[in-house]
């Protein structure tokens, strides 16, 4: 495993010191730990010119709104008048209509809170063949709607979230060319939620072999450099909250780290994206860069309703400025969800998803154990 | 706004006035009984006698702030900008005798004075600050105003106010009180006038005949008090020191020694030591230091501030708290660190404070085999002596020669070309050593580079922001070199070479004495004497400060050479 720096965690360091003091034997070479802090998080995107089919991606929000209004029965002339007024500041009538374009028992309601009451605009989804993802359903090439992963070239990988969102302009991009929505979202997240830490343990991380990968939240936010870039080599403390602790056995082989345990992944996040980020059947693929940083894809089945309501909570503001038609996202995820069917309705509650992560080297330490009144010595 | 008398005239007046202050003591007490053996090895007293001209030094911003906080408490906000200082002979302390105040500067001082004065008389503070209350807050009160102005004036002017001065300030307070119908507003106006007076802003000196040196002159007791306090504490004299001046104790060697011992034992000595090293190391240059944020993204404003503080903490901890050998600052593995610096040093620094709280300082010791050790390898030195986009063996070597070894390096010729040195992407010259070798083929350049580059190249493992590296453009960095005949291969070995270099302690003696006196000290005999004493004390800096502070030369002065017409321009009674 390439990497400029190896760091013995304070815990291991303390163990070594204690054993040395006790006269015990301890070989520092027996274990190596590297720690990282997540410095970018987004849906893994791989947009190209043809992946949305003829006509390209879905239109921008101003055209989407016209369609919303048309779906509500407004005539073209009425729509143009409403749009004109909204643009000249003579009235916000159009926005009042749009922010209440849901219909419940015939009465206008918020389509963001009640997305199923909004008319499905039937926005386009990805029809291209490539997407980053994992073989979550175990069917491989036999899976319905499987993609080809552009990095591994594996066929039959699942990533229906990308399919659902991929033709929204704000969600389009590549690993290097950040999608607008995710660039905005990460800009908010990194300064408003505790950082995520990745810790990799192995016998010798310069060689192939078994590893353990853990994900934890830190007590600190991500630290940034003067130019806004993530700061390498900063120190973070682990948050001991078990709701944000994940540990997976895995293997480092041929320059790629993958996990062999595919359990659940759960991290507290900012409600801006989703209050608790959850994946089932977690898959991970990680690579290390010569500068010491890493990139990773993490995938699994994600409850899509949680994801939707994070968009929905932003209302017309986020819809207009960032995402585009929010209820449209609901309909797209509902349509393309591919796991956890409801026993009665058959509607899938989860959707296959793959996220892209970048992380820079960090120091991660266990915080000092807080003293509790009543402990021995405190009385 | 017109400032005040010309400096020459003012100094001449001070000296002329001194002729009337002949109440000097003939006490010729010897050194204290506890004086170490080193003193007996010193050269004869007359051989080291070196009077200086009287000077009038402007308070530095730090000194101004220290005085205000000493007198009125640390919560007083200054809220202004000080005039730029002037570095002369490598020290701002020397330049402080060569600067005046511009019209714009006077406005800033006036602004600060008004702001400070308004805080002093503020309802929240006045009961704590002022020891009397007016009979009527809406009217003038002679007695209370006089009490306040006399007490504050003694501290700010570093001597008692003359009756004329006191009456003028009381009158100003009274007139202000009548016009504003507020005793405290009037007092505030008068205090502001005192705070913007040149008698506060400049350290004027008064001389008197020196009974220990026939025909010679020395500072009077109050001038001695301020000389001692600004040197040892970087602030004005406290009440005890002024009392010692008032009682005449400072006119005796014993009295001076008692005060010096008290001041050196005080925690405030740290402030004085810090002030010297801030000046000595040129840390004022951090104010204008910039780094290319693309190349050195970790070098934030906080990192720059922490870097200075790290070096100062290292020095203070070694020299004051541990009474260590000055030369060890170039080899010590002990330092202090923050999270901000930890990212540059690649050291884990666990803090326990919530997000957004300022970093805390933590003691840290580099492992024995760590390439870092001593202040030369700290971020403050390596980053300060580097241009914005790269490290610079030349600037670092020059700083080491000039600041730490007191060896003058000539300025480069005006027409010299730096293009090879500055091209850090040149595939032909991958490392700084390669580039400097190519540059030094020019014989005009070679002479100086020969003496500065070898020591600067030893620090090439530290980039322009002080981060550790082993290669440049993929080529391994060679840090070998020599310093005055001593070979080394690493930065740590360079530190040892500087530690062992005989110029290292003698340079400190030279610079510290110049800092104390406000002028370059060129009297070889006195410097030699101080060097011997410094060595005998195990190169302990507080001991050297004591030697300087107790020396006759610290107080010895000679008349200012000026035109008689200047001296006669102002009535002598106002000469202070």
Structural class call of chain B reads mainly alpha
Largest sheet, spatial ordering of strands of chain B: 1-12-5-4
- Rg of chain B, Å, rounded: 26 Å
> What assembly state would you assign to the polypeptide chains in this entry?
heterodimer
**Radius of gyration of chain A over alpha carbons?**
24 Å
| Overall pLDDT metric of chain A | 88
Q: Into which percentage range does the β-strand content of chain B fall?
A: 5-15%
**Helical element count of chain B?**
26
Order of helices and strands of chain A: HEHHHEEEEHHEEEEEEEEHHHEE
Distance between the termini of chain B: 22 Å
Which percent bin holds the helix content of chain A? 10-25%
Widest beta sheet: strand line-up of chain A: 1-6-7-9-10-12-13-15
Compute the average pLDDT of chain B.
87
User: Roughly what percent helix of chain B?
Assistant: 40-55%
Q: Give a count of the beta strands of chain B, DSSP E runs of length 2 or more.
A: 12
Question: In words, what does this structure look like?
Answer:
The complex is a heterodimer of chains A (379) and B (576). Chain A is built from nine helices and 15 strands. Chain A is of the alpha+beta class and 379 residues long. Chain A has two domains: 10-43 and 131-308 and 336-365, no CATH class; 60-122, no CATH class. In chain A, the strands form three sheets. Chain A has an eight-stranded antiparallel barrel. In chain A, helix 7 runs antiparallel to helix 9 (326-336). The radius of gyration of chain A is 24 Å and the shape is globular. The termini of chain A are far apart. Chain B has 26 helices and twelve strands. In chain B, a hairpin with a 2-residue loop joins strand 8 (471-472) and strand 9 (475-476). Classes of the chains: A alpha+beta (379), B mainly alpha (576). The interface between A and B is medium-sized, with 22 and 19 residues.
């Amino acid at each position: 495993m390439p990497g400029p720096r190896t760091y013995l965690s304070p815990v291991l360091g303390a163990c070594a010191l204690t054993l040395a003091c006790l006269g015990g034997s301890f070989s520092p070479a027996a274990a190596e730990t590297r720690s990282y802090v997540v410095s970018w998080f987004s849906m893994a995107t791989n947009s190209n010119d043809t992946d949305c089919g003829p006509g390209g991606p879905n239109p921008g929000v101003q055209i989407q709104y016209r369609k919303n209004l048309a779906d509500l029965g407004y005539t073209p002339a009425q729509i143009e008048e409403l749009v004109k007024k909204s643009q000249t500041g003579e009235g916000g009538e159009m926005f009042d209509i749009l922010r209440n374009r849901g219909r419940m028992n015939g009465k206008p309601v918020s389509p963001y809170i009640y997305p199923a009451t909004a008319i499905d605009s039937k926005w386009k989804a990805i029809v291209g063949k490539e997407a980053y993802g994992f073989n979550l359903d175990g069917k491989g090439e036999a899976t319905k709607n499987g993609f080809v992963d552009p990095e591994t070239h594996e066929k039959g990988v699942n990533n229906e979230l990308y399919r659902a969102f991929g033709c929204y302009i704000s969600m389009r991009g590549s690993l290097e060319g950040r999608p607008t929505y995710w660039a905005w979202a990460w800009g908010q997240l990194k300064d408003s939620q505790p950082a995520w830490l990745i810790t990799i343990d192995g016998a010798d991380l310069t060689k192939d072999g078994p590893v353990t990968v853990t994900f934890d939240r830190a007590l600190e936010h991500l630290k940034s450099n003067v130019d806004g870039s993530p700061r390498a080599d900063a120190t973070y403390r682990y948050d001991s909250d078990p709701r944000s602790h994940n540990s997976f056995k895995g293997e480092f082989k041929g320059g790629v780290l993958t996990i062999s345990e595919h359990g659940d992944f759960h991290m507290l996040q900012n409600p801006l994206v989703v209050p608790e980020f959850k994946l089932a059947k977690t898959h991970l693929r990680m690579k290390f860069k010569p500068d010491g940083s890493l990139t990773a894809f993490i995938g699994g089945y994600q409850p899509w309703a949680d994801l939707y309501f994070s968009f929905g909570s932003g209302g017309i503001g986020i819809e207009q400025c960032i995402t585009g038609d929010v209820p449209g996202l609901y309909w797209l995820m509902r349509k393309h969800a591919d796991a956890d069917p409801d026993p009665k309705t058959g509607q899938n509650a989860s959707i296959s998803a793959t996220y892209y992560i970048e992380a820079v080297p960090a120091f991660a330490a266990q915080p000092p154990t807080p003293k509790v009144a009543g402990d021995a010595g405190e009385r | 706004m017109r400032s005040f008398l010309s400096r020459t005239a003012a100094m001449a007046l001070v000296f002329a006035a001194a002729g009337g202050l002949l109440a000097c003591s003939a006490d010729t007490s010897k050194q204290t009984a506890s004086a170490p053996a080193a003193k007996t090895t010193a050269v004869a007293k007359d051989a080291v006698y070196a009077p200086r001209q009287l000077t009038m030094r402007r308070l530095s911003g730090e000194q101004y702030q220290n005085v205000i906080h000493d007198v009125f408490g640390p919560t007083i906000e200054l809220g202004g900008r000080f005039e730029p200082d002037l570095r002369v002979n490598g020290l701002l302390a020397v330049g402080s005798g060569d600067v005046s105040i511009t019209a714009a500067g006077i406005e800033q001082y006036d602004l600060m004075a008004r702001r400070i004065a308004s805080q002093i008389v503020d309802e929240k503070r006045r009961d704590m600050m002022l020891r009397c209350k007016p009979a009527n807050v809406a009217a003038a009160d002679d007695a209370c105003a006089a009490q306040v102005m006399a007490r504050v004036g003694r501290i700010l002017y570093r001597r008692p106010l003359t009756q004329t001065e006191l009456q003028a300030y009381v009158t100003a307070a009274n007139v202000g009180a009548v016009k504003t119908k507020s005793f405290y507003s009037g007092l505030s106006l008068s205090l502001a006038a005192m705070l913007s007076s040149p008698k506060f802003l400049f350290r004027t000196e008064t001389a008197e005949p020196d009974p220990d040196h026939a025909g010679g002159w020395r500072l009077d007791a109050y001038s001695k008090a301020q000389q001692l306090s600004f040197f040892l504490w970087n602030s004005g004299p406290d009440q005890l020191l002024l009392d010692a001046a008032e009682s005449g104790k400072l006119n005796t060697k014993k009295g001076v020694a008692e005060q010096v011992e008290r001041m050196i034992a005080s925690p405030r000595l740290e402030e004085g030591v810090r002030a010297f090293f801030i000046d000595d190391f040129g840390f004022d240059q951090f104010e204008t230091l910039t780094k290319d944020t693309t190349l050195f993204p970790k070098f934030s404003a906080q990192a720059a501030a922490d870097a200075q503080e790290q070096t100062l903490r290292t020095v203070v901890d070694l020299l004051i708290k541990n009474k260590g050998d000055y030369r060890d600052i170039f080899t010590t593995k002990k330092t202090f660190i923050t999270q901000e610096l930890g990212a540059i040093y690649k050291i884990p620094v666990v803090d326990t404070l919530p997000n957004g709280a300022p970093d805390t300082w933590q003691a840290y010791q580099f492992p024995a085999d760590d390439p870092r050790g001593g202040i030369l390898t700290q971020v403050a030195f390596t980053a300060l002596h580097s241009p914005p986009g790269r490290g610079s063996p030349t600037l670092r070597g020059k700083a080491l020669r000039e600041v730490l070894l007191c060896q003058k390096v000539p300025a480069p010729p005006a027409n010299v070309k730096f293009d090879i040195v500055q091209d850090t992407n040149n595939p032909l010259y991958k490392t700084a050593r390669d580039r400097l070798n190519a540059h030094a083929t020019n014989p005009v350049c070679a002479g100086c580079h020969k003496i500065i580059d070898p020591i600067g190249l030893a620090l090439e493992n530290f980039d322009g922001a002080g981060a550790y590296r082993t290669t440049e453009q993929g080529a391994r960095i060679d840090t070998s070199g020599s310093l005055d005949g001593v070979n080394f291969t690493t930065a740590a070995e360079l530190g040892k070479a500087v530690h062992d270099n005989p110029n290292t302690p003698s340079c400190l003696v030279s610079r510290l004495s110049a800092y104390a006196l406000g002028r370059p000290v060129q009297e070889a005999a006195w410097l030699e004497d101080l060097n011997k004493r410094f060595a005998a004390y195990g190169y302990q800096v507080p001991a050297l400060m004591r030697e300087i502070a107790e020396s006759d030369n610290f107080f010895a002065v000679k008349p200012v050479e000026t035109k008689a017409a200047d001296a006669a321009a102002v009535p002598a009674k106002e000469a202070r």
